[in-house]
Hints:
Chain A contains 15 helices and two strands. By secondary structure, chain A is mainly α. Chain A has two domains: 1-83, no CATH class; 85-367, no CATH class. Chain B has helices spanning 14-17, 20-35, 75-79, 122-126, 152-159, 168-178; strands spanning 58-60, 85-91, 105-113, 132-134, 149-150. The interface between A and B is medium-sized, with 13 and 14 residues.
Amino acid sequence: MNLISNYLPLFIPVVYALLMVSVFMGLCSYSVLAERKVCSWIQRRVGPNRTRLPLIGNIPIIGNILTGLGIFQPAADGLKFLFKEEITPGHVKVGYYYLAPIVALTPALTTMVVLPFGRYVDSSGNIQPLALANIDVGFLFILAISSLGVYGIVLAGWASNSKYPFLGAIRSSAQMISYELAMGLAILPVFMWSAAPGSEYGMSLFGVVQSQQGLWLGIWQPLSALIFLVALFAETNRLPFDMAESETDLVGGFHTEYGAFKFGLFFVAEYAHIIMGSGIFVLLFAGGWHFIPGFADPWPDGYLGALLSMLWFMGKVCLMIFFFIWIRWTLPRFRYDQVMALGWKILLPLAIGNLVFNTLVIAIIDTF
Amino acid sequence: MAKTKVIERKALTWAERTYLPQILTGLKTTLSNMLKKPITLQYPEERPVIPDDYRGVPTLVKDPHGREKCVSCQLCEFVCPPKAIRITPGEVDVDNEPERAHVEKAPKEFDINMLRCIYCGLCQEVCPEEAIFLQDVFSLSGYSRDEMINKKEKLYELGGTLPDQHFKWDKKKSAEALGNSDH
């Protein structure tokens, strides 16, 4: 008994972490399904609707509906990656070749540690975040770790030892550098407003969300939100910025030489980035778990409120994921030089201008 | 010579140069497509509508009274460009069908090799008895080469009965009964 209570504080975080990873991975696999379904709806097709699991799929009406929605499809997709033949081409640099998918997935999963996904009001009325680790420099942590994701792509491109992956990797790293600047600069005004001197939250994501009660940052900082959103698309290597893949000119880009489960890891990493990106955008600009702008949060205190705030946040994230998919199947891919021009000639000056403008406004407010 | 009219390109407006209105229009288009009904045909369960004169798998048909029409004249075998048809001629079973004794001939075996058939429809065109038709079966498959050769039973099963405008052999019989059988 004593032993258990001694080790409980060590044990509980591990359980939380495992729980979060499983929810996150589940979201990943279902966003793959969402991608396939939404793209087929946009193209007026039906999408995956044949996969059926034995017991659940055979329940009279529900089973048919679930099968039609493709709910069982992720299981088939995942198993397919597992059962495929593992091929290692002869010309690759073996160690790095195996390392690359892991390096690609790890940062995407690491950033979720600081992602707050709800709030809990305890009995004494203190509002606490639901997060694995609510650190003061939350957003800096995310910026730092998520940009490591490009190393996986660069490593894959280099270790594959063939030209198309190499080109994809080079493009991807150039794009990452170009858009990271604009992204960081677009975020600064947000923190200048939300983490004013004397506020208790600092750079933590929880603080940003709490400062958005009643008014979302995306509404009164639309320029920051727009720049951040565009940079986010570029950082996640999503169409219209998927320079790393660009199937039409680079076969498969950085993962041309990858198959089976190693490709699966890259695939999951891509969707993990999308979910993380959606989560961060919702936290920074769409009010996190706060209700509609202009309304006070209707969530009660205690566990029920915590659950409701979490569900509301998840709903927003899902909408954001849908937006990512929607954009992908609407816009064509940019040419490489257009991506660079947009990043350096438009977004970066715009972000700097936005920063200067906001600084001036804050200075004027503070002086008078 | 046709006149070419050069249309001057207007410079993009400021709003157009940001691309944002265009992106919004695009999003609206894709969203409206999403809300429409899919045009997919769920193939094995739902079948496409086959037009009447479709040239599918060649089949043998029976007349509305369920009688065999083919008289094994072998014209189709002769005309078949890829030599897919093979007929072994035989005689009408007089004991079972005494009323058709005057037709005399019927195929003993009738094979169409579907690995050879090119669906040209010449057999249907040449048949004097209107006994062979290319109908609406368009997908067939098998595990062996033997399975891909349609035998007589299979051909009649695929063909079924089709309406007959002439009842040629009935007319011949009644003409014979009236003593007009010369021609």
